[in-house]
Amino acid sequence: MKFNMVTKSESFTSPDFGCKPEDREINDYISHGVINLDKPSGPTSHEIDSWVKRILNLEKSGHGGTLDPKVTGILPVGLNDATRAIQLLLTAPKEYVCLLTFHQDIDEERIREVFAEFTGKIFQLPPVKSAVKREMRTRNIYYSTIYEIEGRDVLFRIGCEAGTYVRTYCHNIGEALGVGAHMAELRRTQVGSFNEKNRLVTLQDVTDAYHFWKEDGDESFLREAIMPMERAADYLPKIIIKDSAVDAVCHGADLANGGIVELADNIQKNDIVAIETLKGELVGAGNSLLTSNEILEADSGFAVNVNKVLMKPDTYPRFWK
């Protein structure tokens, strides 16, 4: 996602510390990388994690947003140090393509009417088998576009808030129409800024890329299969900070207004924001304490309550006391 950036102060970055994410040495690039993986039907998301870890000989890996075994599509996987960055995707908006099947014949016009009603804020009760407490909650459906209706089958694309259960969505539409319905097939096509056009790879692609590197010394395929962990935060509004502010944030300090160089122009209070260096490295994330305009006008005080630190301390020199 694109945000308009505005300048708060002038600053420059020293070439002696840190580096552009794309320029990391290959081992560091892998350990700070994410894979936009095309999950096949069958294995669990945790099994995919373990296979990626074994293929790349890693200490750890983790995915952003679990998919049921039979569901295919986008499964972002964080590698080693990037496993914490991948957690930023848990609140990211999602998109799916779904095949819904009604249990009885139903008029096409009525189907389209009910789909239109099931947009905006809806109420959902999570399924019995779910990782969250089973209580009624609201979720935002950004769009629900019908592609094709053939008999009792409906093919549609849905963009929704994180935590939306598409299986429940299909069931509720069937109830609203009084004929019953179930989710026949599901594919996830987007998680935050990860989509099917953004370097989507298979497990075989990752395996081949790793062997090209290990056997032939060609790391280009691996750099194509893996993206810097910074891409996991691309859907969030950003705040760019001075070199002198980086290490304080790395040690757990909240971000002071004096350390800010640039910021997205649409930040609202309590928004989750990504904090980056002038080289584009992801330092951390947190909740904004001010709006964009308030940050631009502030000479002192704090702008962000930092709750996730993603850069190791001492990557940049210590300027604080």
TrEMBL record:
Catalytic activity: uridine(55) in tRNA = pseudouridine(55) in tRNA
Name of this chain's protein: Probable tRNA pseudouridine synthase B
Keywords recorded for this protein, A-Z: Isomerase, tRNA processing
One Pfam entry name: TruB_N
Organism: Methanobrevibacter thaueri
UniProt-listed Enzyme Commission number(s): 5.4.99.25
GO biological process: box H/ACA sno(s)RNA 3'-end processing; mRNA pseudouridine synthesis; rRNA pseudouridine synthesis; snRNA pseudouridine synthesis; tRNA pseudouridine synthesis
CDD domains in the record: PseudoU_synth_hDyskerin, PUA_Cbf5
